[in-house]
Amino acid sequence: MLDVRKLRLLRELNHRGTIAAVAQSLSYTPSAVSQQLSALERETGRTLLVRTGRRVALTPRGLLLAEHAEAVLAELERAQAALADDSVLTGQVRLGAFTTAFTSLIVPAIAALARSHPDLSVAVREVDPSAAPDMLRGNLLDVALIHEYDNVPSTLGSGIDAEPLLDEVVFFASTTTPTVEPAEIIRAHAKGRWIVGNPGTLCHTMAVRSCQASGFEPTVTHRVDDFDAVLRLVAATGSVALVPQLGVVEIPNGVVLTPLPIHRQTRVAYRRGSGRQPALAATCGQLRWAASELEQVGLSAEAVNPSPAR
């Protein structure tokens, strides 16, 4: 009989590529991971791993077993969901979310859950979408908000299910009203001073790729992930930036936001098979409610292009 814990380690190694990364993600020591995987090889009687420099690669049989491990772990999630008591929701849901989702999505959803299910608690953790899939697979989170841009698709990998939550427009932020069509605005600011996110974030990649698609490399003057700070820097320095709708909480005087033909799609993700777990399903339901409320309100034309009198 194969040990589920060892199968989970093999699955993690398939995703993360190194023993050290697996150990860090699951709070093991590297030696403990190596020992467990060696034991799995003895149990199966097959060579599952091969070392290539500092990395460890899975053999064809290792890859085959990792695929079966994904299916086994998903079935265990489904079994836990089927056995869960949905009469009174208790316990804790660990929710990961990116910064701009907190004000408009996370806070309203948690408040609604507290009213409808007072014995259920939600522990929120700020997580960049690029890190969320591994944290879900590693059982560090139960549910997470992820996003992708038109030109930066997300890479969830296996073992993760996701459902659509919200579609946002991306705005061009500047201190002047653009005089060209939205599709040409980025190209028209090829010589501008740009504010982008930090390397490694999806927002950074989106901004840089958008500029590259318009035929230039942006001249980056500021690297900032907080969109409220980005908009204030736009107002103070005359720099330009790309800001998704959820990043617009308050528009500083003098800043003009122009919608672009670029969108960001937010999805709610969880481990495959866990979607019907009652506490998780209730959390996702309130997130969908908060997203629908936000889409109904939207941003008014006055908010996007405030008049000088404001």
Automatic annotation (TrEMBL):
Pfam family, one: LysR_substrate
Tagged with keyword Aminoacyl-tRNA synthetase: no
Gene Ontology CC annotations of this record: protein-DNA complex
Highest rank taxon of the organism: Bacteria
Positions of the HTH lysR-type domain: 2-59
Keyword Transcription on entry: yes
Record key words, sorted: Activator, DNA-binding, Transcription, Transcription regulation
Single GO MF annotation: DNA binding
Family the entry assigns: Belongs to the LysR transcriptional regulatory family.
Protein name per UniProt: Putative LysR family transcriptional regulator
Lineage of the species this protein comes from: Bacteria, Bacillati, Actinomycetota, Actinomycetes, Mycobacteriales
